[in-house]
Amino acid sequence: MPKIIPFKAIRPTRDIVSLIASRSYDTYTKSERKARLENNPYSFLHIVNPGYKYHKVISGEEKFKMVCNRYLEFKEEGIFIEENQASFYVYKIVNRDAEEFVGIIGAASVADYQNNHIKRHENTIKKREEVFKEYLKTTGFNAEPVLLTHPDSDELREICKQVMQKRSEYEFTTTYRDTHYLWPVSDSKVVERIQHLYAEMPELYIADGHHRSSSSALLANDLNEQNIESTAHNYFMSYIIPESHLRIHAFSRMITDLCGMDRDEFLIKLDSIFKIENRGEEFIQPVALHNFSMYLAGNFYTLELRKHHQNFNNALETLDAQILYELVLKPLLSIEDPREDKRLAYGKGKNDMLSVKEKVDQQKFAVAFSLFPATSQQIKDISDEGLTMPPKSTFIQPKLRSGVTIYEFL
């Protein structure tokens, strides 16, 4: 029975929201960041990269304090305003492919995360958790929601439909040609009904944002031990969408060498695992679960997992990223730790195999594998069984922009 509450968002004024909104810092190239910082004084990147003002690279606590300073400057200059009353926010994204994502931004309970009413499917890295916890503790705000998902709800869909009949508070299009819309929802009856509908659900699932969730939980533990009067730190900002609006893509795997084997030796090893078909220069992507596309020595291959390897004992074993790791990466290519091994790299997106092919042709990598995307049911089953996926198992959309709604907890 997840508890989702409305909150008073700090958000940009309507006229400059398109200038404020930014992607996650690490998704920009160095040149992209520089261009945005030089040409857009309102970009949220100025807050998360505060050293730019002094042409200095800073890190750690010094950086976190300066992030807070920049944020406070934006508020003092009237760039950010505070919602008059606690609200939910209906948020819609329409991407360049005309795919539509509609969900609700609210604050999810840390206790529900800790009690497994908000379920996870990825391991987190302790060091990253601690760093982000300290960041949150110093800055006092969160500007990037965790993406949560749930089974489709006819009533929630109807509520969103009714809200979206009115003029949106925000409507802006990014350079990626995604159009974003936001509607604050403060009517007490509608707010109460939304809360009730979430509370009726047995659980929610984290689609994206495992480290943000875990860091928020660590922060809540710290502040509760200090008997902080405010309770806002016991929640974290979330974008909650139905499963049907989730888009799951796969990460490809690129490996620098064949661990001493030549092409033919490697193919012979694979033959006991997969039914293999050489498709030459024909561009091939997987079309079903347990089918893979491989690019090796100028040729595309289809790999179909043999039936005797499909005797699965749990939900994780059905995952193609796990299958590839257990049957190929680890035993044949000696990749023990897919998170840390420098011989392994990842590509992402639904058509990334074209760029992957170029890297193999340039001999940056010896072989590459493309996977069929995991399903939302697989993610739920793995979460329900208390298991975790290997790294880079899913690339999930939608991706919200930072700085559109901000959740303050200190």
Mean pLDDT over the residues: 94
Assembly classification: single chain
In CATH, the architecture of the largest domain is Alpha-Beta Complex
Largest sheet: 9 strands, mixed
Proportion of strand residues: 15-25%
CATH homologous superfamily caption of the largest domain: Conserved hypothetical protein from pyrococcus furiosus pfu- 392566-001, ParB domain
Helix content: 25-40%
Pfam families: DUF1015 (PF06245)
InterPro entries: UCP033563
Protein name: DUF1015 domain-containing protein
Describe this structure in words.
With 410 residues, the protein is of the alpha+beta class. It folds into two domains: 4-247 and 397-408, Conserved hypothetical protein from pyrococcus furiosus pfu- 392566-001, ParB domain (Alpha-Beta Complex); 252-392, Conserved hypothetical protein from pyrococcus furiosus pfu- 392566-001, domain 2 (2-Layer Sandwich), CATH 3.30.1760. 31% of the residues lie in helices and 25% in strands. It contains 13 helices and 21 strands. Strands 1, 4, 5, 6, 8, 9, 10, 11 and 12 form a nine-stranded mixed β-sheet that branches. A six-stranded antiparallel β-sheet has the order 15-17-16-19-14-18, with helices on both faces. Strands 2-3 form a two-stranded antiparallel ribbon. Helix 4 runs parallel beside helix 6 (126-139). It is globular.
